[in-house]
Amino acid sequence: MNELNHIDKNKIISRQGGSLTGSLIIPGDKSISHRALILASLSIGETEISGLLEGEDVFRTADALRDLGVIIVRGSNAKWKVNGVGIGGLSNSEGVIDLGNSGTSARLLTGILAGYGFQSILTGDSSLITRPMDRVINPLRQMGATFHSNNEKLPLTIIGSDNLMPLNYDLPVASAQVKSAILLAGLHAPGETSIIEPTITRDHTERMLKYFGADIQLEDKKNGRLIKVRGQPELKPSPILVPSDPSSAAFPTVAATLVPDSEVIMPRVCINPTRMGFYTTLSEMGASIRWINKRTESGEPIADLIVKSSRLNCIEVPADRAPLMIDEFPVLAMAAACAKGKTVFNGIGELRHKESDRLSAIAEGLKNSGVKVEESEEELIIYGDHVPPEGGSRIFSSLDHRIAMSFLVLGLVSEQPISIDDGRTIETSFPNFVGLMRSIGANIITDA
Ligand code: S3P
Fold first, then answer.
1. CATH 3.65.10.10 fits 12-27+243-446, yes or no
2. In 3D, which of 98, 110, 161, 155 has the Cα closest to residue 135?
3. Cut 0.70: pTM above it
């Protein structure tokens, strides 16, 4: 096998080359993959999952569920089979559950484990143990679970309750992970748990709960969206086809937009409206983005994406759009650096709590690549020039996959190559990123 098909060396370099053309099968959606494994485990019987993201983060969720007594196997043709144990059917894990780099695993599993009257200990890598857990611990405490930790961060000891109480909760932070943790805990409590979400965030948990037959209701109110779930349902297994991840497709989308004479097709990408903020914004900046063959699979809307190169103008991204594109700001920043004029990202303080402090990581990396940037607590301003930035930078990816991939995209157009110190982190969400990008003509190499 050509060793460049896999990121098996740490350093990765990207530089200018020819146009990007062809078709790309983007790996499965990360958020949907976590939820597919989790809800399949909580249903009674066997669920078959196709298109699961086979990335490190999702493997952590699978391993954690195995530790908790669920049988999960990868069958032929990458079809995963999960033997669900039903709500209340998980068993005590023998050791500490290590969730690596995965914030989604940590938050969602904390919600589930709150509903079991045994002790569990969750930990993670040097990035995950710095990320806030109080946002999930606080509501789960109100439901009756007990937590011990240093600063409300991982490592976290959870002593759940077999008699969890339902909760009515106003989400103080726009976070799909927090919302999902409460909904998953609510499945283990009798009666109805309800959440008010002032700003809408990704709704894959709600959609998949419905798909598995749970009693879940959504209502748009003056103060936000009301989500109600009835506890202790019997979830029924249904086969799941995981669509391609729009957050991963964002990297080739920006690359094909910026590299002249490119045209890239990406089939079966998830077009759930709660994930479309980036595509709306890039289109408003002047990108050529087309969605064809719109259809629905396993409760999620999907379509085939066609991107052609185009020149971009600056934009001001409104704060209320941020939750709909929260993971795409790093790569959108690369597009802004090549657009004409001053781009403003408002209300993006949440980026400081991701796999790294992404606001600072974007600002520093762009400055080192010759781009003028202004950073404040909640805002980023990028001055684009309509010509490729200087580049020539060495980016420290700080265990952050999206920072690594974003700067590799910028390196495809910058005057000088851009290198990433350690590309292994990319495996968390986008396995074989380098191989796939090379297959459409990207000049990216591992430093073998
Ligand atoms: C995710 C929600 C988002 C996102 C993360 C995945 C999910 O986090 O950044 O990559 O699957 O629920 P927050 O909910 O903390 O914003």
1. yes
2. 110
3. yes
